[in-house]
Specification:
Layout lengths: L1 E2 L26 E4 H4 L9 E4 L9 H7 L3 H14 E15 L2 E14 L1 H17 L3 H9 L2 E5 L2 E4 L1 H9 L18 E4 L1 H7 L4 E4 L3 E9 L5 H24 L4 E8 L5 E14 L2 E8 L4 E9 L3 E3 L1
Antiparallel strand pairs: 1-5, 2-8, 3-7, 4-5, 4-12, 6-7, 9-10, 10-14, 11-12, 12-15, 13-14
Helix pairs in contact: 3-4, 4-5
């Protein structure tokens, strides 16, 4: 199993400018393309990458083994994880009640993983295609097929896009080679617009889905890295919240005893295994004034099941 907590070699390709980088804040404003900030449809499952990103420590062995850029390895793991991951959690609760009230101690251990054989299968296929390419342009076209959107060095990595390119190669535009100004629709963030959105970090659920809005630190020097880290934290919190929600269904033991007439002690432990399918990133917001970002992740109720 390969841990899906995703933090990803220098890029193999020589990048030609595709568009300008996100505009740095002027008087507390920032502009970003709407495909990043308000993704719709299939791109909600794509992974945000920086084409110059370094390799996270836990993915170094995959980067080295397959000799692929970090953004390809990271994007593959993230996309496979959004499609399906397994969550294993241990939930312990200890309560002590006396005349002064009740105190609770909760300990939870959480792991969520993507099946390693799936990751290795996809990466082996990409590495094989790169190795069989006869020219540098051919190699660029192999890697470029996985880029659905690009804004400067920022891109959306998509396994689905590569499948579509393979099915209709004549309509393929390699965004690693594209130059010129971007025609992307932009969204401007400033203190007033962010306040009007009135988004609150935390867990929520409806009849259709479970959702987490996660806040994180935002660095203007590398916006995509800030979003990635916050998304990973949001996915972790989504998994943790689901473990807590379902923890009472598989209780291993529960004890209760009286220490004396005034003190009562209770303890319980549950181990939960869940499968999450179809995790979506629905919104990315920047608050330039507070140097924070907010990311909304969601999974349909039908995409969560006990194992």
């Amino acid at each position: 199993m390969s841990r899906f907590a995703l933090p990803l070699l220098s890029v193999m390709v020589c990048l030609v400018g595709c568009s300008s980088a996100p505009q740095l804040p002027r008087s507390g404003t920032m502009d970003l393309p709407t495909w990043l900030t308000a993704p719709r449809g299939a791109i909600q499952r794509d992974a945000p990458v920086d084409l110059r990103m370094g390799c996270p420590e836990h993915l170094v062995d995959l980067c080295e083994r397959y000799a692929l850029p970090a953004w390809v390895v990271y994007g593959t793991v993230r996309c496979l994880g959004a499609n399906e991951c397994v969550v294993n959690g241990t939930f312990r609760r200890f309560s002590l009640s006396d005349q002064s009230g009740e105190s609770n101690v909760v300990v939870d251990e959480l792991y969520y993983d993507v099946v390693r054989t799936k990751v290795e299968g996809v990466l082996a296929g990409i590495a094989r295609a790169v190795g069989e390419a006869e020219t540098e342009l051919d190699r660029m076209n192999v890697l470029g097929a996985y880029v659905r959107r690009r804004f400067g060095a920022f891109a959306l990595f998509s396994l689905k896009q590569a499948e579509e390119v393979a099915a209709a190669p004549e309509g393929f535009t390699n965004l690693l080679l594209e130059s010129g100004e971007s025609m992307d629709v932009m969204e401007r963030f400033d203190r007033e617009s962010v306040a009007a959105l009135d988004l609150r970090a935390g867990w929520s659920e409806t009849d259709d889905y479970y959702q987490v809005i996660q806040a994180g630190d935002f660095g203007y020097g590398n916006p995509m890295d800030s979003f990635r880290r916050t998304e990973e934290e949001a996915i972790h919190e989504l998994a943790r919240s689901l473990v807590v929600k379902f923890s009472h269904l598989q209780r291993q033991f529960s004890t209760a005893r009286s220490i004396d007439d005034d003190v009562q002690e209770e303890a319980s432990k549950e181990e939960i295994a869940l499968r999450m399918r179809g995790v979506l990133v629905c919104r990315r917001i920047v608050d330039p004034g507070n140097r924070t970002c907010l990311v909304t992740v969601r999974v349909a109720r039908t995409g969560v099941a006990l194992r």
